[in-house]
Amino acid sequence: MMSKNNLALGQKFSVLIVDDDKIIRRIHKMLLTKFEFESHAVENGKEAVDLYISGKNFDLILMDMEMAVMDGPKATRELRSMGINNVIVGVTSRGSTSEKQAFTEAGLDYCVEKPLSSETITSLLKELAKKY
Amino acid sequence: MSNSSSRERNLHRQLANMKHSLFDQGYLDEQFIQLEELQDEENPNFVEEVVSLYYWDSVRLIQNIEQALEQNPIDFAKLDNHMHQFKGSSCSIGAKKLKKECTQFEKYCKTGNGEGCKRTFQQVKKEYATLKKKLERYFQFARQVGCVEKACRPK
């Protein structure tokens, strides 16, 4: 029996959490586990890009906006320029519309506020179901 | 047997009252409830773990802010960045009063008001310490209630 989160190939949906806040990483990991996602967490955009360069792939990336070493917009631009078409969701606590817009224009599919809630994940799932 | 189950009920009620009080007095918000909803049998102490992680990790964030405030002149961009990190972490555990003080700090930061930042930061630290004590008491009591529950469970 396949859960609603399994892809057609019968694998678990995989998520990459990219955030410099270890509390957020812990919370989001737990939240995603509840939805039966597999998740991996890294601390900044460069680590995310390096994972993809090493051949790893994820169904969804939750990308924080502000991070040291490489921030969300830069990492998103790099991933898109590498031809990565996975869904990238920007996660930000900055309220400014212009900042969110700039982040979205870097190549995001969606932008949501953190911390994520069950409701946010459920809405995202509905959107992702359309894509996949 | 009825004594122990009424004792259990009393303890649960006391714990619930403690929690309601934290919400009624504005210390915590909805995010704390979100964390509680993630708790389950496999992770029965998830909220306490996250809060402990927060208090452990935020020590360096507070130090960063303090150091930035001691600079002359103050680098407000750097200060804002440090506070943004601290505020983000605090929001993620549902620290409502603390979030309010951080927002006030951010306003002073944006207008380059060093004195305002320093004053507000004293409030931030006060709220931070107060919440820590209250949550420590709450989790300690929650653990006691958990122990009584286990002791009262029929063999």
From TrEMBL, chain A:
Designated name of the protein: Response regulatory domain-containing protein
Top-rank taxon: Eukaryota
Annotated GO biological process: phosphorelay signal transduction system
InterPro entries associated with the record: CheY-like_superfamily (IPR011006), Sig_transdc_resp-reg_receiver (IPR001789), ST_Response_Regulator (IPR052048)
Keywords: Phosphoprotein
Statement: the UniProt record of this protein carries the keyword Phosphoprotein: yes
Gene3D superfamilies, sorted: 3.40.50.2300
Residue(s) carrying 4-aspartylphosphate: 64
Keyword field contains Phosphoprotein: yes
One Pfam family named in its UniProt record: Response_reg
Domain Response regulatory stretches: 14-129
UniProtKB/TrEMBL annotation, chain B:
InterPro entries, per the entry: AHP1-5/YPD1 (IPR045871), HPT_dom_sf (IPR036641), Sig_transdc_His_kin_Hpt_dom (IPR008207)
Localization of this protein: Cytoplasm, Cytosol; Nucleus
Pfam families named in the record: Hpt (PF01627)
SUPFAM superfamilies listed in its UniProt record: Histidine-containing phosphotransfer domain, HPT domain
Statement: the UniProt record of this protein carries the keyword Phosphoprotein: yes
GO molecular function: histidine phosphotransfer kinase activity; protein histidine kinase binding
Gene3D superfamilies per record: HPT domain
Gene Ontology terms describing biological process: cytokinin-activated signaling pathway; phosphorelay signal transduction system
Modified residues annotated as Phosphohistidine in this record: 84
A GO cellular component entry from the record: cytosol
Domain spans labelled HPt: 43-138
This protein's UniProt keywords: Cytokinin signaling pathway, Phosphoprotein, Two-component regulatory system
Keyword Endoplasmic reticulum part of the UniProt annotation: no
Reported function: Functions as a two-component phosphorelay mediators between cytokinin sensor histidine kinases and response regulators (B-type ARRs). Plays an important role in propagating cytokinin signal transduction.
Domain notes: Histidine-containing phosphotransfer domain (HPt) contains an active histidine that mediates the phosphotransfer.
Name of the protein this chain belongs to: Histidine-containing phosphotransfer protein
Biological source species: Fraxinus pennsylvanica
